[in-house]
Design brief:
With 429 residues, the protein is an alpha+beta fold. It contains 13 helices and twelve strands. The chain binds a DNA duplex (18 and 18 nucleotides) through helix 3, helix 8, helix 10, strand 9 and strand 12.
Length: 429
DNA sequence: TCTGGGGTCCTAGGACCC
DNA sequence: TCTGGGGTCCTAGGACCC
């Protein structure tokens, strides 16, 4: 039996999370900005209709937004991840086979369901009713075709958010009306190459006969996308939640940083962050990479971009060891007289903490050190982030912390930020 | 004078995604 | 003044082994 998959994709996810607590913004243009209120990362249909582009620098469009009644928000990830987990939980009651693809998307296996269209409508209604989030659903035989279906479900109002793409005729019609660059997995660079081969629409790509040439130009991935468009599964659902293979924490500074002392605070903070993440998936790492860079948009100031790494002999997930190592890396690449704008720490080469290979030449984390990390994680979970931290992270990092002037409250994850409702008392008679 | 071939593993960098 | 952050996969090519 041919598989039937459904892609459930939230509409303007971050914006609609904000709207859940601001019902007055329904039907109004809303945008959500990246960290530091840098550029747009989510836009409602109304904002798109005003011509606001994805990744538009906010300082360039701020005046336009104010004049046109666009509501702008700083990103509020604690809120978004909480709403996301509620949606995923609800979706898991609608199909036992589900892939949590991203914060706002999931693939469901609907194989064997008699009325896929009715079922897709039910999925949409359930999420609307239980969470209040508008979603689009695309149903097809492969993931790439689900993406195509979903694209049209969002684009064509007459489809009311649900699009079924199971028969050939409809596939021909949709693919003919879709530019090849809109396909999942075809970005700017690959689209340029395809255009040189005379391939403009998704249908041109599907029907292109020279498979060897596709493989040569777009590598294996290109051939797989083409195969999926033809209805053959190359990307099955991955049900298992896999551990991350690398973890990164990095941030653009709120304002430029000139001194090593402040850079050290930022690096130590990122190191703590990745170490905590690492422990939460019960892994240990073998490698730490540190990078710093100046502001690439500031053409008249001297540019500097360096990174360096350190390999441990014994893998670790100890915050203090990772901080120390990261700071030694910083020593090697720091250059005075530069206007720094961003720093970051990445860890990689993981092993399961229970099965880690130890070294004869470097001491492993002791039980005492591991216990200390356990306690630190527990305290921070209960008392709030950074209740316990290394002094190396600094005490009040005002200089480099983010600008987030437009941030909403963490309505669903902090008691003291709960929504307040006032209403008049009406006596019951 | 004549100096192989096949395989694996690792890494950097490109491209893409949300 | 002000331009995000975090991830994955793939490939070419180097290093190394027998």
């Amino acid at each position: 039996m041919k598989k039937i998959y459904a892609l459930v994709d939230c509409d303007a996810f971050f914006c609609n999370c904000e709207r859940l607590f601001r019902p007055d913004l329904r039907g109004k243009p809303v945008i959500v900005l990246s960290n530091n209120d840098g550029c747009t990362v989510s836009r409602t249909i109304e904002a798109k209709a005003l011509g606001i582009e994805m990744a538009a620098p906010y300082f360039k469009i701020q005046k336009f937004c104010e004049e046109n009644g666009v509501y702008a928000f700083s990103s509020n990830f604690s809120l978004y991840t909480n709403i996301s987990s509620r949606i995923m939980k609800t979706l898991s009651t609608l199909s036992p086979i589900i892939e949590y693809y991203s914060v706002d998307e999931a693939f469901l296996d609907l194989t064997g369901i008699a009325e896929p269209y009715e079922y897709a409508k039910r999925i949409r209604q359930t999420i609307a009713k239980k969470i209040g989030m508008p979603v689009s659903v695309g149903v097809a035989h492969t993931k790439v075709l689900c993406k195509v279906a979903c694209h049209f479900a969002k684009q064509r109002p007459e489809l009311a958010g649900v699009s079924i793409l199971l028969d050939q005729e409809k596939q021909d019609h949709y693919l003919k009306n879709m530019s090849v660059q809109k396909l999942w997995g075809i970005g700017k660079q690959r689209a340029i190459k395809l255009r040189l081969m005379g391939i403009k629409t998704a249908k041109d790509f599907r029907d292109y006969k020279d498979i060897v040439r596709i493989q040569q130009t777009l590598t294996k991935v290109g051939r797989q996308i083409q195969d999926e468009l033809r209805g053959h599964i190359c990307f099955p659902l991955s049900i298992e939640i896999e551990k991350k293979k690398e973890i990164m924490s990095s941030r653009t500074f709120g304002s430029s940083v000139f001194t090593k002392e402040i850079l050290k605070e930022s690096i130590a903070t990122h190191a703590s962050e990745v170490a905590k993440e690492l422990r939460s998936q019960r892994s240990v790492c073998m490698e730490v990479t540190v990078f710093i860079r100046s502001n690439p948009f500031k053409e008249n100031s001297s540019q500097y971009h360096r990174s360096t790494k350190h390999c441990f002999l014994s893998p670790t997930s100890n915050t203090f060891k990772i901080i120390n190592t990261a700071l030694q890396c910083l020593d090697r690449i720091f250059k005075p007289g530069i206007e720094y704008k961003k720093s970051g720490v990445r860890i990689s080469h993981f092993q399961d903490s229970a099965e880690a290979t130890l070294s004869l030449f470097e001491p492993a984390d002791t039980v005492k050190e591991e216990d200390l990390m356990l306690v630190m994680d527990k305290v921070n979970l209960r008392e709030g982030k950074e209740s316990l931290k290394s002094l190396a992270c600094g005490l009040n990092n005002i200089t480099w912390k983010m600008n987030q002037r437009l941030k909403s409250k963490r309505f669903t994850t902090r008691w003291h930020e709960l929504r307040e409702i006032s209403c008049d008392y009406v006596a019951l008679k």
